[in-house]
Design brief:
Chain lengths: ~250, ~250
DNA sequence: GACATCAGAATGTCCTGACAAAGTCTTGAC
DNA sequence: GTCAAGACTTTGTCAGGACATTCTGATGTC
């Protein structure tokens, strides 16, 4: 039961020790080496086994608790969560998600232009109405089938967008490459019926149910760096969210 | 700029010190005493001001960073997040959410029975197919308008459900009162068209877009304690989610 | 046999101390 | 005037220790 974890630490690495530990434990959970319900040794023993202090070991465990992979109970111990919880929705883009799931995502840029901000966009980006912003409209496909229509608005001058790179990399990767540090986002998920134009693009019938998601993303200065308003084919896409009570 | 926070600590209280600090800072942010963008003193000064150690002060700040209220940058400092981010989706029920928003929620129990678990329910609750489980069907209204049809399945013997209390309190409050410690949940949000029966109950037309949410909730032993499959009127309900990059 | 009490085990909280890394700003050289 | 190097500030990481709180299980009593 109290399996001594085989974890190797590299103290010369710039990667924090607690993170090295967390990553390797996560890998073992994914691989099934640590099955659901498995009880870990107590923090002090674990720390001793790896030659770490208890706070560092705690930090590693806490990281995985926050991720929803482990559960701690005072007086009892730490257990691997008994569920195949999907990774929680993270600050990632649809492109990243699809690429990870190896769904062969492709993107077509339908529109890219500088436009004056409409009221809703201006509110979301916290700029005066009418300010010039960059507007993007893209069609995202997975495995050849159209999946989503994506509208994005960005403050002007944030980064140089090119059609080629957008189609090859996705918006979020471009922003990250431009040293934009996205920190918090506010998502709203809803549903509505497809308009005729949307239906044509998505190979659906008019009135077909679509999943809608609008999101405003802020960087670490609190500046809004992106506002997106997307629709997804409900038959092909769902959002998965893991919730952890702390 | 570097405003000395007026925070009172009660060291005799069972409430952890870091939590007392976090709560009071949060209250000041909500009240506007700490406006968006305000820079806090550095951790060491704050800790000194309150007579705390730096780790405790850090824990308080970290708590608020996780909640998306503060942002830290190494070499720079800690700032109040510059956005009116809604509180993130938490392990709460629709009833709680509505009650909080004072939307006068009402519930009608349409069905309550012990039934053998169908395959999908059995998988979600991790019981053998055919096991007796409690099934609930409820209609949730807000301000007199029908809002959602909710199907729930619970393992048998978890708690004594009564129609009256379900209609007055909501399922989650009953579970909490029965000492069920809900810890993690797995949500899936999608959309589909309303069936005829659903349309009638919800005062919508057949084929109208509905928001769907299915959720499995686990307690701190990893046992599945509830599986729910709900549909919401897309015109009346959306999910709000706040994401914080750590 | 059922229930209360107590010891043990594990995490939760809090402390002090130290060094590393990253960002900002000033200083200085060219 | 511009750019780079270095000082300074601030958070990030890590160590080791102490006591509190909570849960489990065993012990003992009625």
């Amino acid at each position: 039961m109290t399996n001594s974890l085989s974890i190797t630490l590299d103290r010369t690495s710039p990667v924090p020790l607690y993170f090295q530990v967390a990553q390797q434990i996560e890998a073992m959970i994914d691989a099934g080496t640590l099955p659901a319900g498995h009880r870990l040794d107590n923090e002090i023993q674990l720390a001793d086994q790896m030659g770490l202090s208890r706070p560092t070991m705690r930090q590693a465990i806490q990281h995985l608790v926050d991720k929803g992979l482990l559960v701690r109970k005072r007086g009892v111990g730490t257990q691997v969560v008994h569920s195949m919880v999907k990774r929680s929705v993270e600050l990632s883009s649809l492109y990243d998600d699809l690429a990870l799931a190896s769904k062969r995502p492709t993107t077509t840029v339908l529109n890219m232009a500088r436009v004056p901000a409409e009221d809703d966009v201006a509110v979301a980006l916290r700029v005066p109405p009418g300010t010039e912003v960059v507007h993007l409209q893209r069609l995202r496909c997975a495995q050849g089938e159209p999946l989503a229509i994506m509208h994005n608005w960005l403050p002007d001058g944030l980064t140089d967008l090119t059609v080629e790179r957008l189609e090859q990399r996705g918006l979020y990767e471009m922003l990250r490459a431009a040293a934009v540090h996205m920190r918090v986002a506010n998502q709203r998920i809803g549903a509505r019926a497809a308009t005729l134009a949307e239906a044509k693009l998505l190979h659906e019938r008019r009135g077909a149910p679509l999943l809608t998601m609008s999101r405003t993303t802020y960087d670490d200065n609190g500046r809004a760096v992106e506002y997106g308003s997307h629709v997804y084919r409900a038959t092909l896409y769902t959002f998965e969210i893991a919730l952890v009570e702390r």
